[in-house]
Write a structure and sequence with these properties.
The protein has 476 residues and is an alpha+beta fold. It has 15 helices and 16 strands. The protein has 3 domains: 287 residues, no CATH class; 113 residues, no CATH class; 58 residues, Arc Repressor Mutant, subunit A (Orthogonal Bundle), CATH 1.10.10. The strands form 4 sheets. The chain has a 9-stranded mixed sheet with strand order 2-6-7-10-1-11-12-13-14. Strands 5-4-15 form a 3-stranded antiparallel sheet, with no helix packed on it. Helix 7 packs across helix 9. Bound molecules: adenosine-5'-diphosphate (ADP), magnesium ion and zinc ion (ZN). The site of zinc ion (ZN) has 8 residues, from loops.
Length: 476
């Protein structure tokens, strides 16, 4: 049996964060009453005309600039014709022959190695509505709220060689979109969606194998599992001497398998033609210059800066910069208390855990970056122990109370005063004669036991350093 190589190309649809739709003034808000965000334009009433949303163009162009695409100064909106109940015009306005941007690239990192993934094109298009099938009522419903929501489609070259690379690419793309503040990146709500094209070929072979296209991948985990499943399925078929059928397949989340959905349509099936209702989109050079000047520092540049300026371990720099909010939080905290490594540790352990539990982003959390900095400072200065810091973290996170006030109010300030601790140390020594004898007989490892007892007696408030010194002196 030959050894196979997997080939993956991804089509990503990102919903642009404009307030209104791409060709009308309807709201793009998610979760509204069905068919409430509609008008004659997005419900395709005869005689209505589309008017292009300027901000959607700006957002699309910014993404194109961020991934080093060549922007076409002139692009053309085209009609992609197909019939479906959630598509009232019976065509989707998209871009075909002359897309907004082409020839981009994105650097990814997988298992410590770097790789550049080519971006074939980025084009603008409108979203369709949503069909809702109710088994209970044995009826289907159509909600047109999403009709006309602005999207960009980002098409990659077939440059990925496995599920890990595909997920790394998606995460890097999503991170950039969120940094640019042009997409909320929410996979569950469908604002960041992906179709994965998968094929395999014998290692060393240059021509591409027949691909299948996977849909319904609404989390990174599903993308990964679906691609792995599909690669294995292709290899099994080829090893059995069978052919791969080019088709669209649906990932079944519950069973963890892909199932055939429909034969793969070809571009000519859609009868693309330039939309006569829309002028070609021409971009002024001055706009492009302005937009590229407005690009923020992007995640990979920020990661490099974090490595350089804060001397963080690579994994920490990457984790802290993947989400813009988290990176901003970190920088604010470090500005308040310049101990980047300690701040990073607290953020990546305690803070991230609480954020995940609460399912919120760093921006929305009650505990401010300055509070986190204050907490780390209180620990460093010996006012409270690290252990107490951990114990009170969840409460500080939930309430947003200033750490200083909190520890005063709860009487948690660490006891470093020798005379106050001496009584506790004496008590512990008196209560454990057997251990004292063993310690004096050479089992010095028992020091930890004594320290633990003192910490327990003092409800965690004793300064462990002072306790250590006291114990050593008293135990001889
Ligand atoms: P469509 O799927 O809409 O027909 P394209 O022909 O542009 O569009 O291809 C879409 C995606 O499929 C691209 O990301 C491309 O890299 C990828 N692709 C094309 N051929 C293969 C293949 N043989 N194996 C894996 N991916 C492929
Ligand atoms: Mg496709
Ligand atoms: Zn509308």
């Amino acid at each position: 049996m030959p050894e196979y190589e997997a080939v993956i190309g991804l089509e990503v649809h990102a919903q642009l964060r404009t307030k209104t739709k791409i060709f009308c003034a309807c709201s793009t808000a998610f979760g509204q009453e069905p068919n409430s965000n509609t008008c004659p334009v997005c419900t395709a009433m005869p005689g209505t005309l589309p008017v292009l949303n300027r901000l959607a163009v700006e957002y699309a162009a910014k993404m194109a600039l961020a991934v080093d695409c060549t922007i076409n100064r002139r692009s053309v909106f085209a009609r992609k014709n197909y019939f479906y109940p959630d598509l009232p015009k019976a065509y989707q306005i998209s871009q075909y022959e002359a897309p907004l941007a082409e020839h981009g690239r994105l650097r990814i990192q997988v298992d410590g190695h770097e790789k550049v993934i080519g971006i074939t094109r980025i084009h603008m298009e409108e979203d369709a509505g949503k069909s809702i099938h109710s088994a209970a009522e044995n009826k289907s419903f159509v909600d047109l709220n999403r009709c006309g929501t602005p999207l960009i489609e980002i098409v990659s070259e077939p440059d990925m060689r496995g599920a890990d690379e595909a997920v790394a690419y998606l995460k890097a793309l999503r991170s950039i979109l969120v940094y640019l503040e042009i997409c909320d990146g929410n996979m569950e709500e469908g604002s960041f969606r992906c179709d994965a094209n998968v094929s395999v070929r014998p290692k060393g072979e240059q021509t591409l194998g027949t691909r299948t296209e996977l849909k319904n991948l609404n989390s990174f985990r599903h993308v990964h599992k679906a691609i792995e499943y599909e690669i294995a399925r292709h290899i099994d078929l080829l090893d059995d001497g069978e052919r791969i059928v080019q088709e669209t397949r649906l990932y079944d989340v519950d069973k963890g398998v892909t199932v055939s959905m429909r034969g793969k349509e070809e571009a000519h099936d859609y009868r693309y033609f330039p939309d006569p209702d829309l002028l070609p989109l021409t971009l002024e050079q001055t706009w492009l210059i302005k937009w590229s000047e407005e690009l923020p520092e992007l995640p990979q540049a920020r990661e490099a800066r974090f490595l350089r300026d804060y001397d963080l371990p690579e994994a920490a720099a990457q984790a802290l910069t993947a989400e813009k909010d988290l990176a901003e939080y970190f920088e604010t905290a470090v500005a308040a208390y310049p101990e980047p490594k300690k701040i990073a540790n607290w953020m990546l352990s305690e803070l991230l855990r609480e954020l995940n539990l609460a399912r919120i982003s760093a921006r929305a959390c009650a505990m401010t970056a300055t509070h986190l900095a204050d907490l780390v400072r209180l620990i460093d200065s010996g006012r409270i122990s690290g252990k107490i810091g951990k114990q009170i973290f969840a409460e500080l996170f939930a309430t947003g109370e200033a750490p200083e006030e909190f520890i005063k109010r709860k009487g948690l300030v660490q006891i470093s005063d020798t005379s106050a601790l001496e009584a506790v140390v004496d008590k512990v020594i008196a209560a454990s004669p057997a251990e004292v004898e063993a310690y004096k007989g050479g089992k010095t490892k028992l020091l930890g036991f004594f320290v633990g007892q003192v910490m327990r007696e003092s409800k965690g408030q004793a300064n462990p350093g002072v306790v250590n010194d006291l114990l050593k002196a008293k135990l001889g």
